[in-house]
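Can't paste images in this forum, so I'm doing it all in text. The chain is below; anyone willing to post the predicted structure tokens underneath?
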Amino acid sequence: MSEVCVLPRFHMASLSLAPGVQVDLPEGAARHVQVLRLQPGDALRLFDGAGRECLATVTEMGRKAVSVVLGEAVEEPRELPVRVTLAMGMPANDRMDALVEKAAELGVYAIQPLVCARSVLRLDGERAAKKVAHWQAVAVSACEQSGRAVVPKVYPVASLQSWLQSAEAHAGASAVMRGVLSLREAVSVREWLANAAPQGLEVAPPDWCFLSGPEGGLSAEEEALALSRGWSAVSLGKRVLRADTAPLAMLSVLGAQFEG
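Text version of the structure:
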């Protein structure tokens, strides 16, 4: 591993890639730099969450502010070769935090939190907006750690039925491989992938979306609704996986299939 890979990394939404420009770090990043006790002359990396990244060097350390001078751009693609959206019935307690974190580490493109018939966690209004903002921050932190320069989008909480309707409309604009992670009669993930991309990555569809349920899974009616709209029932095996395990397992399978 090269030295540049182990440098501290921080997210900065508005990032110029012009070398020699001096900028002040955002409050959160500045606080983290101070916790790490970095000093003027120490190197770090900045990324904007949309794929741009550069080296930087600390120039000034204040009580609250930290200034850096930007260096050369960094080109180290770390994204999955396909875009994967996970649409998930939100698990309760802290499991959603961990799910967002691990999904970001594994390369997810977007996350859609859903309220389903069996959902324990039910959010709406201001409480839902605060949770989404929190999960977006969790995704940023995971990208800082994992080396990704693209931060996955966490969408606003939606009901499963309303989201399926919007997803159906979106699917009309572009081909999306859509799979429901099912405990009922379903094709194995190996067979499904073989049919979806028989020649591997070269002709694999660019967009994939997987729907999974909360604790207790999707109801029979919810799964039937998705299947009636063109989704495929996909099985990850004979074992019953938790609500926060199944989406990550599917994401890992996609990574192994197309990333090598």
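The mean pLDDT is 90. Residues 78 and 148 are 6 Å apart (CA to CA).
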